[in-house]
Each structure stands twice: as C-alpha cells, then as structure tokens.
Amino acid sequence: MYGIMNTASRSANVSCNNVSSHTVTDTLITGICTSISYNTNVYCNNVDSTGFGFFFGGICLGTKFKGNAMWHHFNALRLNSVAVIDTQAHAGNTWNEKNIVMNGNWDAVNFNATIHYRFAEITVFSKSKFARNIFTANSYCESK
Predict the structure, then answer these.
(1) What global pTM score does this model have?
(2) Which residues lie below 8 Å from residue 121, measured CB to CB, with a gap of 6+?
(3) Which of the ends of the chain has fewer CB neighbours closer than 10 A, N or C?
(4) Regions of the chain with pLDDT less than 70
(5) C-alpha dihedral over 60, 61, 66, 68, to 10 degrees?
C-alpha cells in the first residue's frame, strides 16, 4: 500500500505532501514510492509512521531528492537492489534521530551497494550515492 506511487514517469514532481500511517513495523506500507521514473523531483514532503518512508526502485536517473522530512519508519529511506537515483548532494533532507533508537532499524538502506550501513555511520553509498548531513534546527526547502 502506498501513500503516493510514482511509476514509469518522466519529469514528475512529487512535492509538498504529508503522508502518514499508523505503524512503523508494517513494511507493506510505503509513504512515497518512486519506481522506474526519470528526472523526478521529490521535494518538500513529510512522511511519518510508515514501514518505508521513501522507497526507490529500479532506474530513476535524474532524481532530485531534497527538503524532505522523515520521522518514524522501519526504514526512512530505502533503495532496492536495482535502484539508481544519481548522486544526491545534501539538500535539506532531515531524519528524526530517535528513529534508530526507537526502532533499532536503519535510517536509510541501499540494497544496490556492496555493504549496507546506517547513514549515521557513513555519508555516501557506493552505487546510488546519497549524502546525508544531520540538522538540529529547522531546515528550509527550495523548490526544484
């Protein structure tokens, strides 16, 4: 079940949405899913209490992922074993730091990499690259 599903699209904008569910343990529930889509802008979204906050599957070249807030999830950000979203410079994405402590799970996981780390332990994955910085104050979002 998806709050928002974007699949097989070109140049879609998924922005300014609030998606929430009732449990972090149900991994059949995904807040926002993007699959096999090109040049997609995923920005300024707020996801909370879903199994997977954001999910990327397949080749998603040209994806811009920025200004999103991830709260309580089994995995706040998840890339499947064939996901490619291009290099992502830090762009105001925020994680609720209590997510790791509360759930004992991964803030972000990239199954299209040789080694899987919690984002708190590594800043860049090897294939689908995603840099993460931690914010302690409010962040802002620039559209596109």
Answers:
(1) 0.76
(2) none
(3) C
(4) 97-106, 113-144
(5) 0
Q: Residue 115: what are its φ and ψ, rounded to 5°?
A: -125, 140
Cα–Cα distance measured from residue 49 to residue 117, given in angstroms and rounded to the nearest whole number: 22
Given CA atoms 107, 71, 76, 62 in this order, what sign does their dihedral have?
negative
- Which helix (H) or strand (E) element contains residue 102? helix 98-103
How far apart are alpha carbons 118 and 28 in whole angstroms?
Answer: 21
User: Could you give the CA distance from residue 35 to residue 18 in angstroms, rounded to a whole number?
Assistant: 19
Residue with tokens 């309580």: 72
pLDDT digits 0-9 by tens, 45-71: 999 999 999 999 999 999 999 999 998
Helix/strand/coil for 62? coil
SS3 46: strand
Residue 129 to residue 110: CA distance in whole angstroms: 9
Rounded Cα distance, 31 and 83, in Å: 17
- Rounded-to-integer distance, Cα 92 and Cα 26, Å: 27
